[in-house]
Specification:
214 residues; transmembrane; Immunoglobulin-like; alpha+beta; Ig-like domain-containing protein; transmembrane helix; three-stranded antiparallel sheet; protein tyrosine kinase binding
Amino acid sequence: MSHRDTQRHRGVLERMDRETVLLLHLLLIKGHFYTGVSTYDTVSVYHKVGDDAILPCGNVVYPNCSSTTWIYNKHSSATTELVGHGKVKGRERAGRLRVGSNCSLHISNVHTEDAGSYTCQQYLHVGAAPYGGDAPVRLSVLSSTTSVRTTKTSSTASPPISSSTASPPSSSSTAELPVRLTVFFLVLITPLVIGVAVLIKRRSLTQTVSGLRK
């Protein structure tokens, strides 16, 4: 076997190694993004005028809340940023707002106009895109003596709730669990299968090269 043929076979093996590593990285990255992004249930909170409300944040990244942003939207109106990277920004209600433990949003002396949709988002640094899924909370302000409660509605993952009662997990969350488990195992098994196949192929080529040398 000529020196040129040996170099060519060696180049094939090296190229297979590089392509295998690249493919494994792509598979792992894809699996990370699929299993790492969650859609959180909407938490519905009910309070009477004058109450102190606590809106839970279910997607906390940093315990010091430096990545936490709270935005507010009422009846499809313009969105207002109340908290940015853990600091209260809403001037109109700044005196009644504060960021509590677990990055929850505390609203003291609830007013009727406080009702609406609140969303807890995570930004790892200024100017970055939102990290992970949004954690929406809907605040309803009651004018009667209706009992105060906390419930969850809509999609998939369930954020922790620190107050009152909560509805059972949605059926969509239960239905999606087998799919997530299947993808998770595929992400783990596929790289192993590819690695074994490449190892066998490489060993076969090595034996072929050795045979030709003899």
